[in-house]
Amino acid sequence: MDELNDLPTIAFQSEPAGAITLPVQSFWTTVQYHLTTMVKNLRSLPMLSAVIVSLSTTLCSSAGLEGAASTPLPAPTAESTIVETAASVADFSTLVAAVKAAGLVDALNSAGPFTVFAPTNEAFAKLPKGTVEYLLKPENKKILAQVLTYHVVPGRITAKEIVTLSSAPTLEGQRVDITVTDGTVKVDGATVTKADINCSNGIVHQIDSVILPVGDTIVEVATKNGQFKTLVAAVGAGGLGETLSGKGPFTVLAPTDEAFAKLPKGTVEMLLLPENKDKLVAILTYHVVPGVAAYSDAVVGMKALPTVQGSTIPVSVDGSTVKLGDAKVIAVDVEASNGVIHVIDTVLIPEG
Questions:
Q1: pLDDT 10s digits, 273-300
Q2: Which entry of 9, 76, 194, 315 is 20 to 30 Å from 262 by CA?
Q3: Is the domain of 99 the same as that of 169?
Q4: Residue 240 and residue 162 share a domain
Q5: 350 part of a folded domain
Q6: What's the whole-model pTM score?
Q7: Residue 212 lies inside a defined structural domain of this protein
């Protein structure tokens, strides 16, 4: 990985959907940070066989969004796959090369339906110099596959349906944010320049930028944020840092420093003592939902959340206020490479 030191870098996008603002690097900063972070998180990659099936069936008939720029496409051919049709369109030659380098051609020729947000050659050219060449190297195949799967959403979502959404889950595991302003549709900041390219196993929407998943783990996101110093210290004292930096996925209910400060005087100091590690771990694991990145829209529909500690946390909704046990949720859907964080204003204490 020495070649990373010679490249500029880009940071994974990390703007959460909730009300919290995370202090992260700008979307385009350095390739080194971006790629190094991806490498550290390869352990969290899901199996990619059918995962990216979406970039594969047919860039067939196209209908652009009102006012969007269009690129000439070949005549619709129901028998053609996305890979085959994309290969015949000059604007998608870099995307096709990436699909081949990632070993995803066969997967992309399988069944759907899928929705693909397809970057043009110009979109790839906007990446910092050397990024595309780096990603196309055989040793970076898994990294490239992670980026590509972030452009694929399960199901067929037309332009008419997209404008009703605020986000969509991707096959990479994280969600993309969707915004509509004056008829312009953006996916994680990338503008949809051609919509509804109908395919035999899905639909393709052309975009003007490559979109990137968050590269930081839950622990890294919490550490960089600055509002979770006590939580991060507790995770370290409890020996849970490696676990929460692992594959996941996890949903973490993260108390802020102010939440910990509300505990009786001396409580935090007592819990951080080595002899009280078991108590600390019980409290921390009571804030972790295992095996799923439970976004807010799913949480509000649940009566209770299961936890790693073993007990459940009741969920209550009163208008726009959501409470998990005694804690009020003050920010939601803070994404990480291995799960999602919801910020709460009170430390939850399990019974017993």
A1: 999 999 999 999 999 999 988 999 999 9
A2: 315
A3: yes
A4: no
A5: no
A6: 0.72
A7: no
